[in-house]
Amino acid sequence: MVWFCATGCTTIRENSVPETFKKARMTTDYRKADPTYVNFVPTTAEDAINKFYRHKNLGVPPHLWPEVFVDCAANLPDAELHKFQSWLVNPGGDPTGPMLKGVDRENEALRAQLLKEAKARDVAQQVVHEEEEVTVVIDENYMDVDDEKVQDDDPSSMMVNMSVQDEFEMVTSSER
Predict the structure, then answer these.
(1) Which of 54, 48, 56, 52 is CA-nearest to residue 34?
(2) Euclidean distance between CA atoms 99 and 105, whole angstroms
(3) How confident is the model at residue 95 (pLDDT cuts 50, 70, 90)?
């Protein structure tokens, strides 16, 4: 059988619980256990990222993501907002020295390969041009064109014997 003291036992138990635990218990939203719940106000960058992914998984199209980002970041403190913005820019985190050196090596190898291919292509084109002797004939009368307004006396011309008045009758309105 357990006996409790009526005067001091309850105050000792209340004082033994840390304040941070009491606050955390009060602010924990049990509805966040539902992965489709998005009606919470994020207070940390982690909550904002979580809310964005919840919206994304619910099917928000990419052209509306900026509005979701604004909604997620609306009530964040400055420090958390900076973290959220840095996540938006680079979700994988800032690259470190070894990561950058690896990327530089890959880029340099690709650049060397492309340069080698370009030089080989240029050499092949020079060889083809040297083998082919192309004679270019320049027509000096290319731009000499007769004036279009001058009448041709050629009977094969399209304008010969064309009389609009002879072929068509004048149409008048009916008396309806």
Answers:
(1) 54
(2) 10
(3) confident
| Cα 65 to Cα 32, 51, 62, 73, 83, distances in angstroms | 21, 12, 5, 12, 18
Query: What span, in angstroms and rounded, lies between the C-alpha atoms of 28 and 43?
Result: 12
The residue among 52, 51, 100, 48 whose CA lies nearest residue 77 is: 48
Counting other chains too, the contacts that 16-20 makes at CB distance below 8 Å and 24 or more residues apart are none
Secondary structure (3-state) at 166? helix
Tell me the pLDDT band of 98, cut-offs 50, 70 and 90: confident
- The answer to which of 1-5, 30-34, 57-61 has the lowest mean pLDDT is 1-5
User: Of 71, 70, 80, 73, whose CA–CA distance to 39 is shortest?
Assistant: 71
Spatial separation of the C-alpha atoms in residues 130 and 124, rounded to whole Å: 10
Q: Per the structure block, which two tokens stand in for 130?
A: 């040297």
Token representation of residue 143: 């731009």
Nearest partner of 48 among 91, 107, 93, judged by Cα: 91
Integer CA distances (angstroms), 57 to 38, 51, 67, in order: 11, 10, 15
- Burial, 48: exposed, middle or buried (Cβ in 10 Å; 0-12, 13-18, 19+)? buried
